Amino acid sequence: MTGQTFTDVVRVDHSRAVKDSTFARSYSRTPSFCVYNDRFTQDCLGTSPKLTLVERRDYQFAHEAGVYVRPTNSVYFTANFQTCDPVHLYAIDAKTHKITQLEYPEVVQANGACNYQDGVLYCSQGDRTRPSGLVHVDPVTKKSETLITNFYGRDFNSVNDVVIHHETGEIWFTDPNYGYHQGFRPGSMLPPQVYRFNPKTKECWMVADGFAECNGLCFSPDYKLLYVTDTGAIQAHAGPGDGHQFSMNPKLPGTIYVYDVVNGRELHNRRVFAFCAVGIPDGIKCDEKGYVYSGCGDGVHCWAPDGTLVGKIVTGGITANFCFAKEGMWLFAEKDLFFCELGAKGCLVKIECE
């Protein structure tokens, strides 16, 4: 029910959970704050965490992106193609919680997004006739600008998520095959890869490969690390078809990798940071202390900088993405939109929100 709040803080019984998988899975069912390690309460939750159901609809309206923009005091997010074709664009007023549907014609089948120059930089996945790329929208003037659509002549597959390296001003993004899997993009011309784009010189570099399906990405607070999620476990395993027959293959990755960022430009020393035991890790972000959060199959999971799972914000269902704002965290749980009050602050809040 809209307006319902959840405040339960549940501590995991590790001694039982490690020997009883059914019991271990039970922690994913009820909205709550699930503590796997005391660092979650000490460094992340604060003294009075609260999860509030802001909006519930009968289709997957709250799926991806999640971008706070100061001039409008609103959070921008995208719907899920699975129940919303073409993908709808929305904004919620951070004060009144009024939700507005938006119309930006240059943004086609949008997915992830980030704050760029106090506007929204959308991952426009494209369709059968329009290319995939990055589209910047000024939500005040409603003007759109397409920044890039191809890698030196080879069209992108379906650009998925994007972040800004604020020290260099360059744009980093992932390009998996989900547009093809969902049947609205042609066959791929490129492998699933991570790219770095310089908006001033218009140069683009491929900086990481070797993924089943690269997805979310984020920098550590000091920009010395880059985290990338691989969601290859979710694919249209029988071929693209009509684009609505996704399934889970637990033998494929549901993994977060971490790289060293060298000179703000190169990625070195790829290694596993964490594996998601419930669903797959989709959107990913860091807080000011370097804790890593990712949207997973039962809510938002949180890992300490050493890769230890310390806690979960459990929504009880798939939460593909989320975003930090000044007052807390917005969680996009498909048919449900939640707001969470907690002690942790996103590492970009001072840059993007204050």
Automatic annotation (TrEMBL):
It comes from Exophiala spinifera. This is SMP-30/Gluconolactonase/LRE-like region domain-containing protein. Residues 88-327 form the SMP-30/Gluconolactonase/LRE-like region domain. Signal peptide: none annotated. InterPro entries: 6-blade_b-propeller_TolB-like, Oryzine_lactonohydrolase, SGL. It comes from the Eukaryota. Pfam families: SGL.
